[in-house]
Design brief:
about 300 residues, 10 helices, 2 domains, Beta-Lactamase, about 40% helix, about 15% strand, two-stranded antiparallel sheet
Amino acid sequence: MPFSRCGTLIPRLGDETLVASAWERFVQDQPLNEAGVRSVVLASWQRCRSEAVDPARHSAPAAVAERLRQLQRQNREFCEAAHPALEGLRDVLRECGTLIMLCDAGGTVLQINGGSRVRSAGEGINLAPGGCWNEELIGTNAIGTAIATRAPVQIHANEHFCLDVKRWTCAAAPILDPISGTLLGVVDVSGVKETLHGHTLGLVLAAAKQIEGELARRDSALHERLLTRAIDSFIRYANDYVVLVDARGRIVRASGNAQAVLERHGVSVPLGIGSQLPGLSLALSDVDQCCQRPQWLSLNGCTR
């Protein structure tokens, strides 16, 4: 992936004053000279305006402790698969004064690693476990903007939308489900703005790809075991519609005339391998499974 200026991936130190001036005009609804403001940043500022994000917001909102524990439980396998890549990043960036974070698809920080000094600074804006860095909540930042664009991005200093985040620099890359392509989360490296380095974006992108590769390896091994265990059911019910799903509710294999069966029951669902059936993820609580599962999939004893 080329890290070109036109590709809007790498910020330039020389543009910082121009960006600061442009931001002031933008939040005051004054005519904006776009010179010096990267398109990815301007598009994010516009999303912030449409979501009425307060540029004076001090810090990201925090998930309560129980909610954070729930999210960490739901993302346990994701976190385990990410561990080797995050350890590799920590080794490379050990002396750089940066934070290394793994976030879920909603932008909540699940795991964090970094020196005590930079962690203490991060806690001041809730760049810490449980902090939610979705653009809609805390404006332009690498985590939230990577989620919004589903692309790697580096956000530096005055490019951030909220004032108290402008002393930071950050780079993040999305992590996609290797089967369905859905967003699973984000890997991010953040530090005070003096730690800006162009190679950081390449490092987080490489880490994201490594995590996706580990997830693909784990999925392949798991699905092979599931198919082995389910083969008798596919044979026994060869004249019916049989669908095999994994622990995350994703379709692994289907047989029979699925479309005819579903139309007969007035059901419209995605049929492709990797598509996720609602309410079947074992990471959800029993209550959430029952609430999300459509009526045609409701099991005996499951009430709403």
